[in-house]
């Protein structure tokens, strides 16, 4: 046995990596990463974590960046005949991204398991640069709908980046790397709408900088999309320093004795994982129960994100807050700042002190009274209103990020490396379906709620937030046995 690296040595002097019984091959990118990790014991993977953070937050920003200005965009595209119909059309634009991603995520996961994590990540960044920019330049409703859908189809990063996070670092940093993915996604889902709120309609908000005759005056929703696309260019350049982690053992670079050892160990690994490839994953109940819960809470989270923005900018006569897109941006920016501090300072302590699923249950229980209080906010005004809205927004987004982080950890614990990207691809596909349904249904319910302000049961927006709580309670119930089963695969 080798010293600190935990490797054996062949007759040719080549180390045999103990992980999965793989022989070291100098042309295999996964072997190079494994060997590098074996040599850097005690070294904190700062560069790897930063690159994961940069790519994840960049790919997440476009998902919800449109929500603060979507109400105004639909209004300006003149597709809605009545003000009450804006939410209906906005829901389908919000859902189109997730519909596109639902169709492709499993495929991207399989591609990443066969050809590498890095190519899929690079293609996603290229798609953001192209389709997110075109969305900001939309000339009509259908162009906005199609470009968002294509952006979703090409967004294949999420499954591969989760697999990559657990492979590029040493095992003791795996949970930290997954937490970076979850926290950067959570922050991106907050900062994205903040960017949309601040930078939409710049010619109206900042006339001294942007004129009405400039491209930003003629396309008032282009600037936030352009800024995100520029960041995607930066992330694409940073991918130069992304090492590939997938093992590619097509060439014969070791002697037969090593191949015999590797084959025998590979047979053992096959027995552990079971036969059937991706189909076998559907029989992995710890994985599927975690994915189901992930989908339920994701549906509620995205429905809330759309409802919050539509509700905040709608007129007080319809039960809203009469906020501008800048007001929404201010609220979400403040939430993002405090969310970052929470992820860095508070969540690590909670993760060590509280069992994962217990933490999810506590979050779900606290979410119920929080959402039930939202319809009463229009009775407030001024500083008190802003204080209450900011606090509620921060708490709700904190709860969402906590559950996302927990389920990412549980899903990756339930599978082995060779099917991890595929497993995450399945999770993203099913989650995307739920997230695609969420904005469309939320938009329809929101439009319906605005028409029933004087109803005797759940009038106005009380109906909307009640429906959000229905999914919260459903998720809470599903965290208990016999439905939820926690497992841990051998890695």
UniProtKB/TrEMBL annotation:
Coiled-coil regions, chain positions: none
DNA damage in keyword set: no
Topological relation to the membrane, as annotated: Multi-pass membrane protein
Assigned GO CC terms: membrane
Compartments where located: Membrane
Keywords of the record: Membrane, Transmembrane, Transmembrane helix, Transport
Database matches in SUPFAM superfamilies: MFS general substrate transporter
Gene3D superfamilies registered for this protein in UniProt: MFS general substrate transporter like domains
Domain Major facilitator superfamily (MFS) profile: residue ranges: 48-487
Listed transmembrane segments: 50-74, 86-108, 120-139, 176-199, 219-242, 291-311, 331-351, 358-377, 383-410, 422-448, 463-484
PANTHER family assigned to the protein according to its UniProt record, in alphabetical order: MAJOR FACILITATOR SUPERFAMILY ANTIPORTER (PTHR23504:SF109), MAJOR FACILITATOR SUPERFAMILY DOMAIN-CONTAINING PROTEIN 10 (PTHR23504)
Protein's name according to its UniProt entry: Major facilitator superfamily (MFS) profile domain-containing protein
Organism: Urochloa decumbens
The organism's taxonomic lineage, starting at the top: Eukaryota, Viridiplantae, Streptophyta, Embryophyta, Tracheophyta
